[in-house]
Amino acid sequence: MVLTGFGWGRAVMFDPYNLENPRRDGMKIAFAGPAINIIVALVASLVLKLTPLGDMAIVSSVMAMIIQVNLSLALFNLLPIEPLDGFKIVNGLLSKEQSWKWETLRPYGFYFLIALSVPLFGPAPIGLILTPLLRFFLRILL
Question: Would you kindly state where each structural domain of the chain is located, as residue ranges?
Answer without folding.
Answer: 20-141
